[in-house]
Structures are given as structure tokens and as C-alpha cells.
Amino acid sequence: MKEISIGRSKLQFMVGDITAQDTEAVVNAANERLAPGGGVAGAIHRAAGPGLWEECSTLGGCRTGEARITRGYNLPNRYVIHTVGPVYSGSDRDPVLLRSCYIDSLKIADENGVRSISFPALSTGIFGYPVKEAARVAIMAIRDYLMGDTNIELVRMVLYDTASYDAHVRALEELEAGGEIS
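Above: the chain's sequence. Below: its structure in C-alpha cell form.
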């Protein structure tokens, strides 16, 4: 596990199971309907149980770059924050939308008194976002948010394999070397 301090908060990187985190909230890499699917969304819905989909189905969906919050049901987390990442197209909008996913999720966490939150590597699975580029966007968005007025104490990036973990740690080290993270 890699950990750095940003403002009064900690940012951690680890390989693990997003459904087994001890943080108050976990972020779901959702689709626009907030429906169970594959990848992270499927794993979170399976672990949370049917109550999660029942609540999600009342929310009217979620647009790309936005986030919604629900209870955690059978997960070890009090909340699930659902965000819809962009399907990678190579356009200039991709990083804007991806950044918005992280920022909106953190805002909703703060608004609900969440002090610790776990994120997967949003949009890097079936949505096809290159992991190295997505890692830079994620780290910069989280850094920018944590440097502001927040009560979030811990942000954890829970990465699905060592290749994703290594890409995130390399992106962090490059940003630190460039003076963009301090």
C-alpha cells in the first residue's frame, strides 16, 4: 500500500476488492441507469443485495460525470456513491467528465458527513479509458478537492490488479516529481 498526505487528508493506493473496504463510503463505477451490470457495478450490487437496486431504481438514473448516493445495504460501507464515468473516446471531454466523477463523488461524500471513501479506477474497465491517463486525472482531481475545505480524512484508491496499482503509483510519482503534488 502507498499513502501520501494531502492537506489534512490521506490518499492511499492498494490492490484489493472494492466490496471489502472498511471506509464509510464506496464508489460504484455505475451505468446511467444505476443498474447492476458487470465489473465493479456488478460486484457492488451482488455484495449489497437487492435493496441497492431497489433504491437505485427510484433515483431516475445518473448522467456521465455526475454522482448519486444510496445506502450500503449488505456492504460493510454505510453508503454507496454511484458515478458514471465516460466511455473513452479520445476526445477533450473525456478527462473533464472523468474529473467531474471524482469531484462530484467527493462533494456528495462531504455533504453526507463521510470521512473515508474508497474509489475504483473509474472508466478503466469496459469503458476503455487508458489506465495511465485515468490515473493522472484521478490523482489531480482528488488532490485539488482535498486541498480545499473538506472534512474527508481518507481517500483510498482500490485497484483491481498490480498493473493498475503500478500505473497509479507511477502517475503519482510523476506528479510529485513535477511539483504538482506536494
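The mean pLDDT is 95.
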